[in-house]
Amino acid sequence: MSAVPAPPFVVAALYQFRALSDPAGLRARLLALGQEEGLCGTLIVAHEGLNGTVAGSREGIDRLRTFLHAEGFDRLEDKESSAIEAPFKRFKVRLKTEIVTMGVPVEPTSQAGQYVAPQDWNDLITAPDVVVIDTRNRYEVKAGTFEGAVNPDIDSFREFPAWLDAHEHELAGKRVAMFCTGGIRCEKSTSLLRARGYSDVFHLQGGILKYLEDVPETDSRWQGECFVFDGRVTVGHGLKEGDTTMCHSCGWPLTPEEREHAHYEEGVSCGHCFEQTTAAQKAAFRDRQRLYDAQAT
Fold first, then answer.
1. Interval 101-139: pLDDT, tens
2. Annotated active-site positions, please?
3. What is the CA radius of gyration of the chain?
4. What is the pTM of this model?
5. Which domains, and CATH codes, for the chain?
């Protein structure tokens, strides 16, 4: 029996907080490398470091890592998965003020909470004195989360500090465990808590993606799938591509059952957003979907 060929695209999610004196220069060098290697995805560069998810050939991703190490990124938080089709349409390198936007100044390189390895996470989050907080956006949480986790019900990470202002009293006397997709948002959210005087603050090292990669499904306390910001939409245990698709009208992750809803129309609407768009908007979405279908054939 012949071996099953490996999926053609390697997907690398990576970040590192590191002070950069010339982020614009790094952006130019990354853009040139990515175009030369045929990479796709987005990298964000700021004075505080680098963040992003990119995909390409095995050789292209390896060359990117070698380049970043030579540029001084020697402590990259780096997770790898695969995709059958290109998960992004093009390659972009963006200059921003933050590599993950929270809007409140913190010091993640010196103040972040204590890392917890995936194999130790279950013991921590089942302890009675621990509050577990999902720092992701509401549509991400909808696709899946850890059993018993608090959902801040936010639309963007910028809203997290305000949520904390309103709920800080609920954390008194508790240990706090936080998690997110790849770990980067928790670098800042745990730094924020520690800046406010909390000492027993923890976060899942490598994020949900590392947990799903390392922890067997039989031992897992994860429920559902993990939303990812690419064409796969979600991944499950072992980082296998999930069954969820996205409503291209509102961006809501949809399970196979939700795609059976009477208000679901591919590219046009779903049960979550049907009442939120006008007939004219739906007509425009249909035109867009017809154009997309024509280009795909």
1. 999 999 999 999 999 999 999 999 999 999 999 999 999
2. 180
3. 20
4. 0.86
5. 9-95 (3.30.70.100), 114-224 (3.40.250.10), 246-296 (no CATH)
